[in-house]
Amino acid sequence: MKTLIEIHVLQNFAPSNLNRDDTGAPKDAFFGGTRRGRVSSQCDKRAIRQFFDEKVREGVFSADELAVRTKRVYQAVADALAGKRDAAEARAKAETALSYIKISRSKDADKTQYLLFLGKREIAAVAGAIDQHWDLIVEAEADQAEDGSKKKKSKKDAAGSAPKEVRDQIEAIFSGGKAVDVALFGRMLADMPEKNQHAACQVAHAISTHAVEREFDFYTAVDDLKPEDTTGADMMGTIEFNSACYYRYAVVDWEKLVTNLQGDTDLATKGLRTFLEGFVLAEPTGKQNSFAAHNPPEFVAVSVCHDAAPRNLANAFETAIRAKTGESLTRKSAEALATKAHALDTAYPRKGQTFVLNVAKADIGGFGEDKASLDAVLDAVLTAAKG
């Protein structure tokens, strides 16, 4: 039986610039014929991954239950061998050992060609394999070109020069390392597609439930030490911003999460709870020093569905919400969301339960089971998910 956990969040942010495009403006998109505020899924996932790091500091996870996304894996391996091996030699051995599985160095020293999303257990295991086979891991001699210079080795040549037992051991290490964030968000290793991990969750771009207009903040700054008889600003500029009530949506495939974590349901349960909690509480950090738009969601609905297709409710806002004077944008958005959910459930019934945190006091017509706190919602969701 396939179990999906869907989370719908409405979050109204005060003036802010949470996620910028290449011009520094808040990201946006056309939806339903009007321009909407937008926060990319990559931005939300980055905030959630940082929330997982906080949970390590709180003791919910051990450090090796998470992963790192980095080009500096050679240094990470050398750090794991600190106290056992010389750092420079360890970095060189790491570069050679990883070239056996076609992960090669970029033009910049000590970095891989692309970002790798590796479990910390995988990095530690690579370091252990290098330590074990230290003397076998030797860079192959490069062939000479006609002009006498050394030819650059191809990835295939580097892999072909590897001692078989070393290559086999290192290849076997790349299983995801039971890292919760790799299991949730997945990864792609361009040179080892067989080691890719399909994500257990999908995260939508957040969009505003209403039309938005960009605004500009003109600012000036004054030199504190300039003479008192000198007038005028010493710096000036503009920052673009908006204020928007965002609809945010994500879905987690419970069985896929357990499979990615190699059947460890306890770790999957912790991962699911932390993901949902982080999805609600973690905020993008863009321009927060200038805007401090720390506005928690005022409507959260989490559905646990069995043998059903996922259901994004963004079309509740295909017609942009308009709030009259004295009306709450969040409340009107929640009511539209509940109406759309009822309509789709009638047309396409599916098995499941929904739990709601309704701080906005929206009239949602019996949509879901009311809960008084986020903890109560999460407790009910985990019980329903594990069935």
Can you walk me through this structure?
By secondary structure, the chain is an alpha+beta fold. It folds into 2 domains: 3-46 and 198-211 and 243-386, no CATH class; 68-143 and 153-178, no CATH class. Helices cover 34% and strands 21% of the residues. The chain contains 12 helices and 12 strands. A hairpin with a 2-residue loop joins strand 2 and strand 3. Helix 1 (41-57) packs across helix 9 (265-281) and helix 4 runs antiparallel to helix 6 (164-173). The chain is globular. The model has no long low-confidence stretch (mean pLDDT 92). It comes from Halothiobacillus diazotrophicus. It holds the Pfam family Cas_CT1975. This is Type I-E CRISPR-associated protein Cas7/Cse4/CasC.
Number of strands: 12
- The stretches of 5 or more residues where confidence is low (pLDDT under 50) are none
SS class: alpha+beta
Number of helices: 12
Distance between the termini: 11 Å
From the alpha carbons, calculate the radius of gyration and give it in angstroms.
26 Å
How much β-strand is present in the residues?
15-25%
Average of pLDDT: 92
- The residue fraction in helices comes out at 25-40%
Domain count: 2
Give a quick account of the main beta sheet: strands, pairing sense, barrel closure.
Answer: 10 strands, mixed
Note the run of SSEs as H and E.
EEEHEHHEHHHHEEEEHHHEHEEH
Shape: globular
